[in-house]
Amino acid sequence: MxxxxxxxxxxxxxxxxxxxxxxxxxxxxxxxxxCGLDLSEAGRTDDVxxxxxxADLAALALxxxxxxxxxxxxxxxxxxxxxxxxxxxxxxxxxxxxxKPSAPVPAILDGVSVEIFRGRGTARGAPVAAGLATRAYLxxxxxxGDKAARLDAAVERxxxxxGIRVVARSHDYRTPPWGDTxxxxxxxxxxAVETDLSPHALLxxxxxxxxxxxxxxxxxxxxxxxxxxxxxxxGAQVDDAxxxxxxxxxxxxxxxxxPLAEIAPDLTIGGERVxxxxxxxxxxxxxxxx
Length: 290
Prior knowledge:
Layout: E1 4-14, H1 20-25, E2 27-36, H2 40-45, H3 54-67, H4 73-87, E3 93-100, E4 112-119, E5 134-142, H5 147-160, E6 164-169, E7 172-175, E8 186-195, H6 199-212, E9 227-233, E10 238-239, E11 244-245, H7 254-263, E12 268-269, E13 272-273, H8 274-279, E14 287-289
Antiparallel strand pairs: 1-2, 2-3, 3-4, 5-8, 5-9, 6-8, 7-8, 7-14, 10-11, 12-13
Helix pairs in contact: 3-4, 3-6
EC number: 4.1.2.25, 2.7.6.3
Function: Catalyzes the conversion of 7,8-dihydroneopterin to 6-hydroxymethyl-7,8-dihydropterin. Catalyzes the transfer of pyrophosphate from adenosine triphosphate (ATP) to 6-hydroxymethyl-7,8-dihydropterin, an enzymatic step in folate biosynthesis pathway.
InterPro entries: Dihydroneopterin_aldolase, FolB_dom, GTP-CH-I_C/QueF, Hppk, Hppk_sf
């Protein structure tokens, strides 16, 4: 394959290594990707749908390198290659290089590296969608530009993200702004996904899709190109600086519960069915879009 997408020297702080000190202290790693695929149609049409998102590739590599731990950087490279070939059907081959500048080697050197090359049929351990076991629910919303198109694009990007399978989607609902009311109306929806990602890795996937679509956080509860929230993750109770699960406001917001109740009315959050929580809220101004 002569056409290639290159993503060079992604930096990540992680704790990969054989020695106990490496797990405790951590260090910086660099990941580089060289993906072989046919780019002729993308070049001819200038249409992004005929290529692979560089942002999605970067997010996938950073998620694996930053949220999992490997004793060997060979295993890290293998996991990234397998995930890329599994998650991006257009990519036929991938070369993954992992640099470890601060490797504990008793010598004066700039670092150590491994580089692997994999093609379809050569990657080991690629995740299989049918094995995804954990159910999670996401809220999606937009109030800038073509709102419906942005929701569709977000769902499509999530469905292509390795380790995520979209299994249900609500209708879109026109909703009034909440919190900061001096802005345009929103289009909101809900998704059910099956995933083998951890709760934090699922959040990372959502944030990477937002970033790839141009999300910029300028003011709290302000206008947004796209918003993707992790509302509920089966069996998970999380409360830290990055993530709270279930989502802290999920039972207080009708614009979240109306679409969620469409696809999961009997889901129990905080000891209460979604349908029952919704019955307590004012649904005024929320309209289903056919």
